[in-house]
Amino acid sequence: MVDVTRDIVLDALKSVRGPDLEGNIVDLGMVSDVFISDGKVYFSITVPADRAKELDPLRAAAERCVKDVPGVKGAMVALTADRKAGDAPRPAPPAAKASAGPSHSSHAHAGHSHAGHSHGSSAPAGGARQPTAAQKAGIPGVGAIIAVASGKGGVGKSTTSVNLALALQANGLKVGILDADIYGPSMPRLLGISGRPQQIDGRLIRPMENYGLKVMSMGFLVDEEVAMIWRGPMIQSALLQMLREVQWGDLDVLVVDMPPGTGDAQLTMAQQVPLAGAVIVSTPQDLALIDARKGLAMFRKVEVPVLGIVENMSYFIAPDTGHRYDIFGHGGAQREAERIGVPFLGGVPLTMGIRETSDAGTPVVVSDPEGEAARIYREVAAKVWEQVTAKAADTGRAPPRIVFE
Ligand SMILES: Nc1ncnc2c1ncn2[C@@H]1O[C@H](COP(=O)(O)OP(=O)(O)OP(=O)(O)O)[C@@H](O)[C@H]1O
């Protein structure tokens, strides 16, 4: 097997003509740094913002060209607008960009060829509205996509995502989970999955599977050190690829474990994917609640319905006596939810069981399905699904097929 190097990739890319068929994209300085990990090649191509949409074939040509290089197992190419190769990451906070809509010039990613249908990032300039969920390209076979988000890290978002996914499944739905936390993927550990997903027909990726859940995570594809140096457009491209180039099959619901915060990944999801809604995870502490509000505001700005708030580590259950202690000022999230008018989806206690089963790759909903924690997660899941069904009815989209007894 030939070892692929940056020089080999750049040499191959010299055969790709620039826009208007002048020169080649390498000599024109349009190609970013090239990252190679395990035979997969990642880079972006800088194009004028106003031509991003029109130049998608250039992106596709570059991707094909690299895929044909011997030893290359895959290529992921993103278009970046208005930036020179090798520039520092964009300084502007992505959260601020949400209000400007997807059309501002310095941020016009053309997305991915399979993102198709070119909604969102390529919207016309001049205050264009966000596409509504119904207008955005869905994922074939996937009924509803739910984002699980938090304003800050460490509040138990991933623990909540995985148990929520398993609880939705326990309630009778077909469920997948996408770990979009590119900088700190946790699904491989939480679900005890290792190894790499296989490609089918050289194009679609077959998701990994455990406990009946279809699972995709950046952690299966890319070393963490590589992901750490990715810039916005590459993250977006990777996310879109994980959504659209994975053979999810028939799913009632895809749960997306978002990275913490209100950055690029959230915006991509919200802008390009028809999210049925977002679940916000918060702890009772005031600070986390303030951050949760930021998350709420972001989803509202991009017109993604907020399905509700889950209060995690809501109270403590003593392992010896089973007594409950409201040591964290329990109830903060519920009050906050009521105040801002979003549904309260439930409180999950802080228990050793939840922590230990997460660490062991056997989430509590599957390892102790009769236990109190599993019951609480199933209740949360039922409320989430109620909201999804209600929101779908509100927006006139086809209601999900399955109804709880
Ligand atoms: N209800 C709970 N009871 C006990 N431990 C919990 C609970 N929820 C989460 N934890 C533990 O808290 C830690 C952080 O949880 P988790 O990784 O899910 O948070 P996160 O918000 O996704 O964090 P990050 O932002 O780092 O991805 C983990 O060790 C997890 O096992």
From TrEMBL:
Pfam families: FeS_assembly_P (PF01883), ParA (PF10609). One of its GO terms (biological process) is iron-sulfur cluster assembly. ATP binds at G151, K152, G153, G154, V155, G156, K157, S158. Residues 82-134 are annotated as: Disordered. Keywords: ATP-binding, Hydrolase, Iron, Iron-sulfur, Metal-binding, Nucleotide-binding. It comes from the Bacteria. Residues 8-75 form the MIP18 family-like domain. CDD domains: Mrp_NBP35 (cd02037). Residues 95-105, 118-128 have a biased composition (Low complexity). Residues 106-117 have a biased composition (Basic residues). One of its GO terms (molecular function) is ATP binding. In the C-terminal section; belongs to the Mrp/NBP35 ATP-binding proteins family. PANTHER family: IRON-SULFUR PROTEIN NUBPL. Homodimer. NCBIfam families: PRK11670.1. Binds and transfers iron-sulfur (Fe-S) clusters to target apoproteins. Can hydrolyze ATP. This is Iron-sulfur cluster carrier protein. It comes from Xaviernesmea oryzae.
